[in-house]
Design a protein that fits this description.
By secondary structure, this protein is an alpha+beta fold. 52% of the residues lie in helices and 8% in strands.
Amino acid sequence: MQLHNYFRSGTSHRVRIALNIKGLPYDYVAVDLRREQHLAAEFTGINPQGLVPALVHEGKVLIQSPAIIEWLEECHPLPALLPREPDARARVRAMAAVVGCDIHPLNNRRVLEYLRHEFGCDEAAVEAWCGRWIAAGFDALEEMLAADPARGDYCFGGAPTIADVYLVPQVESARRFKVDLSRWPLIGAADAACGRLEAFRSAAPGLQPDAA
């Protein structure tokens, strides 16, 4: 497998975590968003959308991190990232979607670059924008975690699920945008539990080869 990705991309981060949990080796192919490599023909020939990540496997290209992670779960079901029961699976998917659909799209790089260049936002305004939408999503997610009487160390149960795979990169982004995380203790506890696992630690942005 080849993972075309960028060290600080939240979507790339979550795919790295999923690959690590599954124990699947891959070649790290850096796509430098700072140098606009994602817009060059070399990469758009892989993903016409010009977005990371893209996973290449046996000549096939997979794009969009939700589709990649679901594909990994279907093709490599153990260790499982989804519980067995349909209601529990829906709950875990909903928590992942809070991040993947409602938080991350509003603070990813192309949106922030648009705010900077088209609306003249300075970094304080950009951080305020990110903090507003991260807080709204984390408020809801904290309530979801609190409402689960069987909650374990992670977002759901005693092992990481796709909810944690999505959450940890978003917590990383929240720290980067100077969001005070102390108001969400359950999110903090889940993030800390994940941080004790090598699969999560080795996927961290600062440890990737293009982070320098």
